[in-house]
Amino acid sequence: MRTKPWKIAVDNNPNPNDIYITPRLAKELMDTDPTVVVLDFPFNESVQNINGQKYISRVDNRFNRLYKDAHIPNSVKACVFDFEERDTGNIKDAEKIKEFLLSKGINCDTHLIVYSDLVIVAAYAAFIAYWVGVKQVRIIDGGIQCWNDHNYPLTRVESITEPVNNFGTNVPARPEILLLRPEDVYVEQMLDSNYLCASIRSWDEFIGKETGYSFVTYKGEPAHSVFTRASDKSTDIAFLTNDKEEILVDPAILEEWASWGVTPSKHVSFHCGGGYRAAAVYFITLQLGWKHTCVYQGGSGQWNKYHLNNPKEYPIQKGDPLTQSSVLIDYI
């Protein structure tokens, strides 16, 4: 049993569930595997929350990059907007995402490698492709920063892939890994006694001290949520990464999860505000061998909207459930 934090990224011979890989392995796959397609999701061109985007870009110049200025050779520019509805923040219909992937030369048998400047952006995009049905999806651990740290080349030359016509499977091929809306969570809570709705938001977000987002007005969590420490703020999973955005799993964090009931034997959905952080944590558990996890993409933001329309069916939780100081709010 491990007692110290360890980097989860695989450096050779990845199996299908090894999502996070080192830059060295990513480069090897790019050089040797003809089925590889690489998608670049530059942070400054991939995030809908413009205020959050401007703030992060201002405090950390790593996130100022644009595709036209620097990217990994042969990588194709993409944007989260290609996968997500601009007005609602919901994941697009699987058929629409399939058409986008086909336009980038990606089908179910493509070996897809994704990277960004921020791990949660790469993970969110990779998760959606994985949900739709791409069989092999990888994320470059540490993104373009760690690629650059290896002195691997960058380019300004735009890459374009040839479209393909046949995706090769019905979509979504993995419907079980996504709970899209609050009503999906409600059904799980009613029917599955082994189900846990696990928030990976910061502690202050979880107890209802702050919303974490400029576009969310109501504080609190979906009722009966448990705390899964991962985030320091709404733009990171700082308790599961180092300062280079590499995934770092700490046994002490997993022990804390277990104190809330979040273990491999449970059916767990992870949520944040809109799915980015939750997707990154989902892939960590997948790589650790957990078999019963999924993402609740609507998160606290969409639950908030449902609560305003139907507070009794979608109550809000505030406070710390472990100290019995939490309350359920079934009114507006």
Automatic annotation (TrEMBL):
It catalyses: thiosulfate + hydrogen cyanide = thiocyanate + sulfite + 2 H(+). One of its GO terms (molecular function) is thiosulfate-cyanide sulfurtransferase activity. The chain crosses the membrane at residues 112-132. It holds the Pfam family Rhodanese. It comes from the Bacteria. Keywords: Membrane, Repeat, Transmembrane, Transmembrane helix. It is an enzyme of class 2 (transferase). Residues 59-156, 251-305 form the Rhodanese domain. Its EC number is 2.8.1.1. This is thiosulfate sulfurtransferase.
